UniProtKB/TrEMBL annotation:
The keyword Coiled coil does not apply. Keywords: Endonuclease, Hydrolase, Nuclease, RNA-binding, tRNA processing. It comes from Pseudonocardia hydrocarbonoxydans. The gene is rnpA. Consists of a catalytic RNA component (M1 or rnpB) and a protein subunit. GO terms for molecular function: 3'-tRNA processing endoribonuclease activity; ribonuclease P activity; tRNA binding. This is Ribonuclease P protein component.
């Protein structure tokens, strides 16, 4: 479980990250990342697992796996970062290892797209 201070709670927060944040799509999920104005704040995260993923049991299983994978990765994010992980239907059949690979790749991709991020060749955007 994510600590209370590490969770996105309001619908407006989710909407802001999804609309204004950088997006990185993977086969089983889409990762949205936005750096909020408060750079002293701890990184926060939220999950979106819709009915398209499956029934209630399947959605809760996917949510539990993603929460478990996301919690330790929050420490590596910049201060003030807000992340929304949106699960896609293939996440229902994925193993935790497959979800971890997609989550890591999605976070890397979204971080790379942030303004001021360094490209692999060392040139700053």
């Amino acid at each position: 479980m994510l600590p209370a201070r590490s969770r996105l709670t309001g619908g407006d927060e989710f909407a802001s990250v999804i609309r204004r944040g950088r997006r990185s799509g993977r086969p089983r999920m889409v990762v949205h990342l936005q750096i909020m104005g408060d750079t002293d704040a701890t990184p926060r995260a939220g999950l979106v697992v819709s009915r398209a993923v499956g029934g209630a049991v399947v959605r809760h299983r996917v949510s539990r796996r993603l929460r478990h994978l996301l919690a330790p990765r929050l420490a590596s994010l910049p201060a003030g970062a807000c992340v929304v992980v949106r699960a896609l239907p293939p996440a229902a059949e994925a193993t935790s290892a497959e979800l971890a690979v997609d989550l890591d790749a999605g976070l890397r991709g979204a971080l790379r797209k942030l303004p001021g991020a360094r490209r692999p060749d060392g040139v700053q955007r």
